[in-house]
Queue: 2 jobs
Job 1
Amino acid sequence: MQILLLWNDCSANRIVKFSVEYSIEGDLLNVFDVVPIEVKLLDLRWGTVVTQMAVRSSKTYELVRSRFLATDGLKSLVDKIAERHHLSVINR
């Protein structure tokens, strides 16, 4: 299965769109891949999007993905998928 996820990286003033590949087998949620596909940079003063760009280079891919995984992004992702499928999160 696939889901698109928006993640608000407040410390870097950006919103990142991810494509997430996952499966559900019984009570087990398996996340296979988390791929950043688009970044929107925000103007803090006005709360508007200054620019948006596709994630094309491997350097940008790794930077955004590692930042997501280092924060609570993965926890948030699991919670959203579980909510979508009416699952309970017991262990991370």
Job 2
Amino acid sequence: MRWVETRAYAGPDRRKRKRFRWFSRRKQDRSSPLPAIQVMLRQLHLRVLDVETAREALAQYQMRLHIAQKALRAEGQTEAALCLAAVEQTLRDVQRSGEFSSAAANEMHERAAAALCALR
């Protein structure tokens, strides 16, 4: 899986294959290989603070969380994946209530740190 990180979009590369397109807006290939699991977990751990302050960062955080869970399950890191599942559940609860409290942010921050510590 390739990963794209720009100011406007961060996530998996949605292009199916590389080929020449006449009026392609993307002149440079800005995709790179998926970052290592440790790097993804550190980013999730730190980006909780961005999610607390910026509503538009919520969708990006959810996508990163989902991809990190898939990568952890693929590598057999079930304990860390369960920690991220708890973060995702807290995020869903926050979205349902419509209020992002600092207690929820602290809980998500601690669970992301626990996922990082749970790596073997």
